[in-house]
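Per reviewer request, we include the raw input and output of the structure prediction for the construct analysed in the revised manuscript.
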Amino acid sequence: MKVYYKEDVLKNGFKQAVITQQDDYEGNVVITLIRKSTKIKSAKCILYIHGFNDYFFQETAAEEFLKKGYNFYALDLRKYGRSILRNQKPNNAKHLSEYYEDIDQALHVIRDEGNTQVVLFGHSTGGLIITLYAAVRKQFPLFDALICNSPFYDFNVPWIQKKTVIPILSFLGRQNPNLALPIGFSKFYGKSLHTSDYGEWDYNLQWKPHTAPSINAGWINAIHEGHLLISRGISINKPILILHSERSVYPSKWSEEMFEGDAILNVKDIIEKSKLIDSPSKEVVGFKSAMHDLVLSKLPIRNLVFKTIFEWLEKSL
């Protein structure tokens, strides 16, 4: 599949290609594939999949892979970041399988551009998506391994809510997927990242606002159904590396503690649900003082994260 690239908003050698997908229940759909090639002759690459209320801006992470001889690709999924259209509610989905077509298209382009060894790298919701994707694409030869950065394998709510509130909201989502829910996420996480507050990263606050847009009940159902698949046990036939912070943090007001743990997910859930993933090769690694997006943690932590990743890739591929 031939696509046409233009300069990306990141500049610095990053290019983007907008790919039209089939229309869905909201109308027109596009995805955006971002690319930067390593200066080292190589046929291996990374395909990065972002999380919820997110898009690809982690340029420093890309540069680490480029230095190691990996071509780097990232995908802004439908209704996220570069791919949001006027007819769409940002982040909206009824089924996580909607994203499988997006990944399929990206992988076909990546292979057509000469890459023969492809690693999927998913953060948070992206980690959940690529895990489920690998389970249903077992005979698909277009990717070779998975790296999950703080994968969203369960809702970060008390046990009783997981057994009562989430199933009720999921049921509502099946009946009325467009029902808006006044459920948000802590704005402190965004403040811990962005240079306008306490963080070291500059990114588009329209594409990744501190307070995420309200979600639909259909989105809750989509995520819940994905979580149920994980909880029942899931099998993939590719090596998988699952990375997470060693602890979660729950500050009720701004605190430097935000830099010392995962402020979005319960890391105990990640550890427990990872046990239910069957793979020919699986490693689960925790990092002390790591943030939710491990590659946005303080420099010494992210250096250790990348050291772990490259050591794993060396022995797994």
